[in-house]
TrEMBL record:
InterPro entries: IsoCit/isopropylmalate_DH_CS, IsoPropMal-DH-like_dom, Isopropylmalate_DH. This is 3-isopropylmalate dehydrogenase. Binds 1 Mg(2+) or Mn(2+) ion per subunit. The keyword Amino-acid biosynthesis applies. Catalyzes the oxidation of 3-carboxy-2-hydroxy-4-methylpentanoate (3-isopropylmalate) to 3-carboxy-4-methyl-2-oxopentanoate. The product decarboxylates to 4-methyl-2 oxopentanoate. It comes from the Bacteria. SMART domains: Iso_dh. NAD(+) binds at residues 275-287. It catalyses: (2R,3S)-3-isopropylmalate + NAD(+) = 4-methyl-2-oxopentanoate + CO2 + NADH. GO terms for molecular function: 3-isopropylmalate dehydrogenase activity; magnesium ion binding; NAD binding. One of its GO terms (cellular component) is cytosol. The gene is leuB. It comes from Deinococcus cellulosilyticus (strain DSM 18568 / NBRC 106333 / KACC 11606 / 5516J-15). Its main location: cytoplasm. Mg(2+) binds at residues 218, 242, 246.
């Protein structure tokens, strides 16, 4: 039985994670859950955001489902030393899991085009998966300094780093529309030239059935907004991916709709991209969609159950149209929306 470590976290975290688990219990009744306090909730209970017991639990898990962490600006957690704040727990969690690939589906759901900042004809059918390298590149290179005369950081990628992220992208594409766009700046950067060469090599030796093209990051920034339907899977390095995934995140038009997966060689980490929304915590109005869709990603990428993931995606699409939550202009609360999803799932057994 796959073991899922559940970290509800803070703010709306516990509410939206509870919804996701209700949904999982219908489509994958055999999963085992091990719940731990994490982030601010763990600080209040144990004095630290990510205890040794929780670290041990995630190392032995098949997947980790996370709600959200942190509090409002004026939260008492923000008066603690930096290494004892909720956010440092999240960094330590990602590190403990060694997640090197961040996956963010950018999808405009049918009937939800009006939420998108794009014109409806451009928004229709947008379904892109951004795969961002998460542990390398300019953010992490150990060679770095600042002095009176200059600041320095370096973008460096090693063979195995490009290989493993390319594999994630090609594999994901096989479960989608079989097309990968590798994004770089190979016209000016040697590191990009290398990236491109390695991605080509991985495709040729392991994924020759997947179509691959290469585009420059500046061009992709433009095309993601003017012609997003041209993309299936986008794979790119850390800095480019950081920027493109945030650009992409505004296309669906609501934070409450956006799930994410972070994958490494061990357990994957699944969480909504939004924060803990302290302004609406405890009111029962949070939209659980991003977390429920994160649970679907977990079924797809860590548990190898694409049919169960498809069932959730289909039920969410209908629930969004039939009984939308307040942030989407509807009136459903967290529980009512969840009940709609559960009802629709039961109809599609
Ligand atoms: P972070 O905590 O990552 O720094 P943030 O504080 O900028 O992010 P969020 O906590 O995500 O942002 O909240 C931003 C706004 O979006 C808030 O007004 C919040 O209520 C709203 N929001 C976020 N997630 C949801 C959700 N699932 N349902 C409804 N509203 C949400
Ligand atoms: Mg926040």
């Amino acid at each position: 039985m796959p073991k899922i470590v559940v970290l509800p976290g803070d703010g709306i975290g516990p509410e939206i994670v509870a919804s996701a688990i209700e949904v999982l219990k219908v489509v994958a009744p055999d999963l085992e859950y091990d719940e731990h306090k994490f982030g601010g909730a763990s600080i209040d209970a144990y004095g630290e955001p990510f205890t040794a017991a929780t670290q041990e639990a995630v190392k032995n898990a098949d997947a980790v489902l996370l709600g959200s962490i942190g509090g409002a600006q004026d939260s008492h957690w923000n008066t603690l030393p930096r290494h004892l704040r909720p956010e440092s727990g999240l960094l330590a969690l990602r590190k403990a899991l060694g997640v090197y690939a961040n996956l963010r589906p950018i999808k405009v759901y049918e009937g939800m085009e009006h939420l998108s900042p794009l014109k409806p004809e451009l928004a229709r059918g947008v379904d892109v998966l951004v795969v961002r390298e998460l542990l390398g590149g300019v953010y992490f290179d150990p060679e770095r300094w600042i002095n009176e005369m200059e600041g320095f950081n370096a973008m460096r990628y090693k063979k195995h780093e490009v290989e493993r992220i390319a594999r994630v992208a090609f594999k994901a594409a096989q479960g989608r529309r079989n097309k990968v766009t590798s994004v770089d700046k190979a016209n000016v950067l040697e590191v990009s030239e290398f990236w491109r060469r390695e991605v080509v090599r991985v495709r040729e030796s392991e994924y020759s059935d997947v179509a691959l093209n290469h585009e420059y990051v500046d061009s992709v920034a433009m095309l993601l907004v003017t012609n997003p339907s041209r993309y299936d899977v986008i794979v790119t390095e850390n800095l480019f991916g950081d920027i493109l995934s945030d650009l992409g995140a505004v296309l669906p038009g609501s934070l409450g709709l956006m799930p994410s997966a972070s994958l490494g060689d061990g357990a994957g980490l699944y969480e909504p991209i939004h924060g803990s929304a302290p302004d609406i915590a405890g009111q029962g109005i949070a939209n659980p969609t991003a977390t429920i869709l994160s649970a679907a990603l977990m079924l797809r990428y860590s548990l190898n159950r694409p049919e169960a993931a498809d069932r959730i995606d289909a039920a969410i699409l209908r629930a969004l149209n039939e009984n939308p939550t307040k942030d989407l202009g509807g009136s459903a609360g967290t529980q009512e929306f969840t009940q709609t999803v559960l009802q629709l799932l039961k109809e599609t057994v």
